[in-house]
């Protein structure tokens, strides 16, 4: 009898590299399968799901968090994490609401976006030049920014009488809200930057191995700081859209928004350790969570089970990422 090892077909041997490629494919494309399956199930389970009104409502509702999630993907790929976006979201709406009567709608909104850029730059400097862990730095600045928002409003709503302020949040083009068009624009710009520019390549390099990137001449601190600046600027834009919808600035809005954005990013397959990710997968992760919420509402399922289901999806995504990295080593 011949030895089993000598007669085994090499083509069917399962090596760590083969297993790693299989797990990587699951992380990269499993989100497509999950999204497609859930979409089909909901289409059959609820007649209201496939209506244009429902689908456009989903896009509109997810546009603000989508802007934050898409740009937050850049931060995560670069090896960082931004926990201040929810607070920036609230403060930007308040800044716009407080200054609109004096400066006018365009200038007030521009000022609010600039505030987001400044706050994001501070986050970037603290976590790079300041050598403070990004989680701690942005958690601390998020608390401070939220406190500033409360101080500016005294805990009260800031209502805006100018009807022009509500145009951004309520206006439409071709039956689609401005917020959705802005979300699509952010997606396109982020994809182009990440996939076709030198900065995009540097973001992947810095997140994959910061020391190696530094040795080849990449300005690691600058690249990381840029991602934080982009993230906070986008959070400010999202906050302005939200404030515009209700013509009100609120200090308590956006609480927990950063966690929802990070969940969408992780479910989309972006590695929590940096160096790997894609904008389109984040968008699908965002839409998967949106379909879960929408489906549970349409089917009148207890919200408690919705939270359990979403938590399970997040755990699965993180576990797959951990398995991919283990098999790759």
Tell me what the structure shows.
This protein has a domain at 63-255 and 271-276. The longest helix has 30 residues, at 16-45. The protein has helices spanning 4-7, 16-45, 52-77, 85-103, 105-127, 134-153, 167-170, 178-196, 198-208, 210-215, 220-246, 257-267, 279-298, 303-328, and strands at 158-159, 172-173, 176-177, 248-249. The chain has 329 residues and is an all-alpha fold. Residues 1-8 and 10-15 have low confidence and may be disordered. Helix 4 (85-103) packs parallel to helix 6 and helix 5 packs antiparallel against helix 6.
Distinctive features:
329 residues, mainly alpha, globular, 4 strands, two-stranded antiparallel sheet
Present the secondary structure layout.
Blueprint: H1 4-7, H2 16-45, H3 52-77, H4 85-103, H5 105-127, H6 134-153, E1 158-159, H7 167-170, E2 172-173, E3 176-177, H8 178-196, H9 198-208, H10 210-215, H11 220-246, E4 248-249, H12 257-267, H13 279-298, H14 303-328
Antiparallel strand pairs: 1-4, 2-3
């Amino acid at each position: 009898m011949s030895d089993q090892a000598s007669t085994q077909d090499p083509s069917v041997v399962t090596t760590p590299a083969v297993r790693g490629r299989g797990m990587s494919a699951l992380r990269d494309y499993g989100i497509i399968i999950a999204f497609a399956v859930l979409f089909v199930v909901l289409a059959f389970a609820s007649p209201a799901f496939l209506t244009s009104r429902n689908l456009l409502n989903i896009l509109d509702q997810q546009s603000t968090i989508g802007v934050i999630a898409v740009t937050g993907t850049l931060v995560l790929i670069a090896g960082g994490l931004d926990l201040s976006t929810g607070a920036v979201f609230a403060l930007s709406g308040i800044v716009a609401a407080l200054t609109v009567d004096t400066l006018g709608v365009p200038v007030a909104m521009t000022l609010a976006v600039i505030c987001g850029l400044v706050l994001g730059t501070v986050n970037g400097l603290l976590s790079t030049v300041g050598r403070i862990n990004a989680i701690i730095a942005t958690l601390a600045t998020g608390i401070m920014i939220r406190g500033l928002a409360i101080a500016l409003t005294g805990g009260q709503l800031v209502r805006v009488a100018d009807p022009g302020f509500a145009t951004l949040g309520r206006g439409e083009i071709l039956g689609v809200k401005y917020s959705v068009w802005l979300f699509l624009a952010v997606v396109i710009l982020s994809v182009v930057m990440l996939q076709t520019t030198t900065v995009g390549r540097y973001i992947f390099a810095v997140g994959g191995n910061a020391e190696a990137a530094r040795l080849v001449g990449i300005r690691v601190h600058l690249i990381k700081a840029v991602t934080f600046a982009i993230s906070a600027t986008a959070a400010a834009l999202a906050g302005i859209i939200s404030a515009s919808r209700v013509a009100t600035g609120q200090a308590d809005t956006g609480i927990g928004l950063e966690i929802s954005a990070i969940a969408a990013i992780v479910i989309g397959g972006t590695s929590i350790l940096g160096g790997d990710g894609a904008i389109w997968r984040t968008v699908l992760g965002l839409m998967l969570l949106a379909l879960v919420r929408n489906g549970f509402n349409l089917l009148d399922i207890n919200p408690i089970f919705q939270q359990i289901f979403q938590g399970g999806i997040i755990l699965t995504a993180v576990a797959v990422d951990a398995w991919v990295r283990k098999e790759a080593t």
